[in-house]
Amino acid sequence: MGIACDFLLQNRAVFELTHEIYNKYPDAPAVGTFAFATPALVLRDLKNIEEVMTGDFNTFNDRGFNINPKVDRLADNVLLMNGIRWKLTRQKMTPLFTSSKLRNMYYIMDKSGKDFVEYLRTEPKEQAFDILTTFCSAAIGASVFGIHTQSIMDSPFLKMARKALEPSPTLTLRFTLNDMFPKLLEIFKLKIFGDFEEFFIGAIKNVLRVREQQATRTHDFADLCMGLQQKGTMRDPETGYEMEPTDELMAAQAFFFFIAGVEPSATAMFFALFEMAKHPDIQSRVHEEIDQVFDECDGKLTFEAVTNMKYLDMVLDESMRMHPAIGNLLRRCMRDGAVLPVGNIKVDKGTLIHLPIYAIHHDPRHYPEPEKFIPERFSQENKKNINNYAFLPFGEGHRICIGMRFARLQVKTGLVHALRHFTVETRDAGTNIKFGKLPAQMRPTNIDLQFVLRASS
Ligand code: HEM
């Protein structure tokens, strides 16, 4: 019964299962398996991976997840949509993440970073991963719904965002049913995210109605949604397919910025800090870079200053290589007769394709001594030699993370503010890391960090 069955019956994350399969067949370009009764492939060869992620759009664009947008309104989002509906929504959402939009939005991220430092000063009692999840929920909340004078950590959206992110057995069951019996969801009109509909659709409607009355631009996501609504019907020029930018459609995208954005951002921050705690020499170099930038900006961090922090970028990249937030991705083949070039592998319609990111990032063919933390792998000079498809923390190709640049900026801003005032330490440097039983994410469960105020703070 393959990966899906092992996932249900064993206490392991999917990325651990695909990593095991990947290592068992070191000479194969791909390994055949099943997801219950559906044929599945675990890809090992980078050319085949490129074909799936970036090749013919109509063959492999599907995430392998069934949704019923008429019933499950929050599932109608750019992460879970497929086909033409996804293509049009993605086209309309992409301009929200340009450099100039991010620069305009930077003031929100900077305030989030400062509020985070104040929060850390209160010595919160939760585990570091939870502290970082709280920060990322609050910071994404601020970028979606805007900021006010109070701390982002007091946002009314925080409670709901945290609830939406909690691992819940009912949610796992609904996801599994979706995989095994998609028709069942349709017949019984079951919703995957029904619990959050009222709150999120209500919240976005309120924010949009208030904004319509305001003269000043706020440059947050709600502001950008309003711009889309003012332009009216969305239309795909190639096919003529049309969609209305309704409040519900905007709410589904906003909801998914939380679902898709918070946990990966928290994971990226957590592991970057964890590796710095394990390697104090590397942390010192990052501290030096941050202190220098703060001095140059006279204490006021700018968008350009954060964007240009080269050593922090190297540390973040190496950390996302060793600990990608999403350890395994899925695609579904949408037509019969598809062929993967290496090994001439014929792929039938409906076949699920696993892209084992964690396994690729730990393959010594791509990274010598893969278990060693070496930020220099990502220096300007060295990173030119890394194949695009061997470094996939944000995915690649048609469905690459839409929030990638936003996420990098937000993660770096949070790290820079925190490390300006704190040093991170860990008592778990030698611990064998354990992960939550999750379909894509890599959530560590048995390691922690301590934030210690720096002498200069
Ligand atoms: C460090 C933080 C993040 C990481 C590591 C990450 C990683 C990923 C990955 C691996 C994918 C799948 C790409 C693929 O299938 O090829 C993805 C998709 C996506 N991410 Fe992110 N992400 C992060 C932050 C964010 C943020 C902050 C947002 C929202 C503002 C976001 C929104 C999305 C969306 C909407 C998709 C679906 C794109 C599509 O299917 O067209 N992500 N992300």
Automatic annotation (TrEMBL):
It is a peripheral membrane protein. Its main location: endoplasmic reticulum. It catalyses: an organic molecule + reduced [NADPH--hemoprotein reductase] + O2 = an alcohol + oxidized [NADPH--hemoprotein reductase] + H2O + H(+). Its cofactor is heme. It is found in: Endoplasmic reticulum membrane; Microsome membrane. SUPFAM superfamilies: Cytochrome P450. Heme binds at residue 401. Its EC number is 1.14.14.1. Keywords: Endoplasmic reticulum, Heme, Iron, Membrane, Metal-binding, Microsome, Monooxygenase, Oxidoreductase. The keyword Membrane applies. GO terms for molecular function: heme binding; iron ion binding; oxidoreductase activity, acting on paired donors, with incorporation or reduction of molecular oxygen, reduced flavin or flavoprotein as one donor, and incorporation of one atom of oxygen. The keyword Oxidoreductase applies. One of its GO terms (cellular component) is endoplasmic reticulum membrane. It is an enzyme of class 1 (oxidoreductase). PROSITE patterns: CYTOCHROME_P450 (PS00086). May be involved in the metabolism of insect hormones and in the breakdown of synthetic insecticides. Belongs to the cytochrome P450 family. PANTHER family: CYTOCHROME P450, CYTOCHROME P450 28A5-RELATED. This is unspecific monooxygenase. It comes from Eumeta variegata (Bagworm moth). The gene is CYP6B6.
